Amino acid sequence: MTEKDGLMIDARSLTKDFGPTRALADLSFRVKRGEILGFLGPNGAGKTTAMRILTGYLRPTRGSVHVCGIPVAERPVEARRRIGYLPENAPLYDEMMVIDFLRYTAELREVPPAERDRRLATIGKRCGLAEVLGKDIGQLSKGYRQRVGLAQAMIHDPDLLILDEPTSGLDPNQIVEIRELVKELGKDKTVILSTHILPEVQATCNRILIVNEGRLVADDRPEALSGRASGASIRLVLKAREGELDAAEVGEALGGIEGIREVQKAEGEGAGTLGFVLRDSAGADSREAVFGAAVDHSWIVLDLHREQVSLEDTFRRLTLGEQEGGEG
């Protein structure tokens, strides 16, 4: 596939060794035009190494990567013209005014002189820098410095934005501002957001890659990842039509339902009620069967709803080596 097919990145079998340490191991993935991709993993998983290979700053030990159909290792300068890159610690010149730094960046990025003022005005407005263009970068808050970093990555109107930990060190308000900006950019750019912060990818990304120890361990939509690892759980609260239910008998009956792999006692909703959390097998949805069992046993159902496994739970399983339920 090439850029004509809508493919922005084609990474194949990327492996990177630093002496005896293997930072990436046979990593392959593709990114289509218009995706906001979360590149997720714990610290030391190989995220930054992968970003540096994608942008041509590192050569892989083995494997290849094409950006917009361009082989990065063979034609890195040409590939970089199509990429905007914000590294984790954006290289900014504190003694320069914001406007001068962006003009300098535009020159380095070979933006035609006749277009520079228009690009500066557009990027300054889009990144919320209008009020600080005349200030020295060294005077800016961390949030505004990140905005300047984003602006320099966008100044040449790239097709692909690669953002490495863009909210690192920001306060909660600044995180929300940068998050909204990334979502806005994703309307007309392909964006890769590399981070270890789960709320970032949930709030901004429509696809997630999870890497661990340099290997790809998951590739899916956020909502699919949230429900895949151990199946979902079912919250159930019951009461008897007459008298009281026997918790052991009810638990045994629930455990016999096909698709239910675990029954846990939980809080009820007051006197005469029983609460349970039922764990589905991976990929199963046993709510209909549970309701049928309640009808067969004449239980009154006060609550029956499905609770998805959180992305945090999935992330921990995939990166800490915990076994997925039902799969051994």
How would you describe what is shown here?
With about 325 residues, the protein is α/β, with parallel strands linked by helices. The protein has two domains: about 5-225, Rossmann fold (3-Layer(aba) Sandwich), CATH 3.40.50; about 230-310, Alpha-Beta Plaits, CATH 3.30.70.1340. The protein is built from eleven helices and 14 strands. Strands 6-7-8-3-9-10 form a six-stranded mixed beta sheet, with helices on both faces.
How would the global form be characterised? elongated
> Which CATH architecture of the largest domain would you pick?
3-Layer(aba) Sandwich
Query: Termini distance?
Result: 36 Å
Mean pLDDT: 87
| Number of discrete helical segments | 11
The overall number of domains is: 2
Give the oligomeric state of the chains in this entry, treating copies of one chain as homo and distinct chains as hetero.
single chain
**CATH class wording of the largest domain:** Alpha Beta
Radius of gyration: 25 Å
| Neighbour order of strands in the largest sheet | 6-7-8-3-9-10
Quantity of strands, as a count: 14
- What about the largest sheet? 6 strands, mixed
CATH superfamily of the largest domain: P-loop containing nucleotide triphosphate hydrolases
Structural class: alpha/beta
Unreliable stretches: 322-328
What order do the SSEs take from the amino end to the carboxyl end, as H and E? EEEHEEHEHHHEHEHEEHEHEEHEH
Name the helicity range.
Answer: 25-40%
| CATH fold naming of the largest domain | Rossmann fold
Q: DSSP strand (E) fraction?
A: 25-35%
